[in-house]
């Protein structure tokens, strides 16, 4: 059985690794969000789409960017693409639904400006996506969900 100082050190190391991974996720998310918001604003400002479908189109394009960068940089996953892509799709589909609900509720229901509504939607969905991808999409196939070799033993 590990001593208390060793257990505390492992906990601190695990939390630090989780923090680094989340920081990487946020960096990747910024790139995907730039693409998402560019599509959203372009479609709305050119009159090609209402804010809700434009937000959803942006979400889909941003998801493509997110998959590639997160697989490689954030999670360093070796899960085969055939398995990771459908898992990514499921997590992204829930995020897509959350985006739709939040955008429809805030932009249409409450009349908020579409960009303000999208910021709220982004804030909610970013946490959902990080946890979904960390714990399921790109999780180590050995079923450990702890970061960088941290052990479950205490």
Structural topology:
Layout: H1 4-45, H2 51-74, H3 81-109, H4 114-137
Helix pairs in contact: 1-2, 2-3, 3-4
Annotation keywords:
154 residues, disordered C terminus, transmembrane helix, elongated, 0% strand, mainly alpha, 77% helix, single chain
Written description of the protein model:
With 154 residues, this protein is an all-alpha fold. It has one domain (22-137). It contains four helices and no strands. The protein has helices spanning 4-45, 51-74, 81-109, 114-137. Residues 25-138 form the GtrA/DPMS transmembrane domain. It holds the Pfam family GtrA_DPMS_TM.
Helix-strand pattern, N to C?
A: HHHH
Give the CA-based shape: elongated
Unreliable spans: 144-154
Mean pLDDT: 89
Structural class: mainly alpha
Number of helices: 4
Summed up, the domain count is 1
Largest sheet: none
Count the beta strands: 0
Instruction: Give Rg in angstroms.
Output: 18 Å
Head-to-tail CA distance between termini: 7 Å
Percent helix among the residues?
Answer: over 70%
- The amount of beta strand, in percent, is under 5%
Subcellular location: Membrane
Protein name: GtrA family protein
Domain GtrA/DPMS transmembrane: 25-138
GO biological process, one term: polysaccharide biosynthetic process
């Amino acid at each position: 059985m590990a001593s208390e100082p060793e257990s505390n050190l492992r906990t601190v190391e695990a939390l630090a690794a989780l923090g680094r991974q989340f920081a990487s996720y946020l960096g990747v998310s910024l790139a995907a969000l730039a693409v998402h918001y560019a599509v959203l604003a372009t479609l709305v400002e050119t009159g090609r789409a209402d804010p809700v479908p434009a937000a959803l189109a942006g979400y889909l394009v941003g998801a493509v960017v997110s998959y590639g960068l997160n697989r490689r940089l954030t999670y360093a996953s070796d899960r085969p693409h055939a398995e990771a892509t459908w898992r990514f799709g499921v997590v992204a589909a829930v995020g897509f639904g959350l985006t739709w609900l939040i955008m429809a509720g805030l932009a249409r229901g409450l009349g908020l400006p579409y960009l303000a509504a999208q910021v709220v939607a982004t804030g909610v969905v970013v946490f959902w996506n990080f946890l979904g991808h960390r714990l399921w999409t790109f999780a180590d196939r050995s079923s450990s969900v702890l970061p960088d070799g941290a052990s479950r033993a205490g």
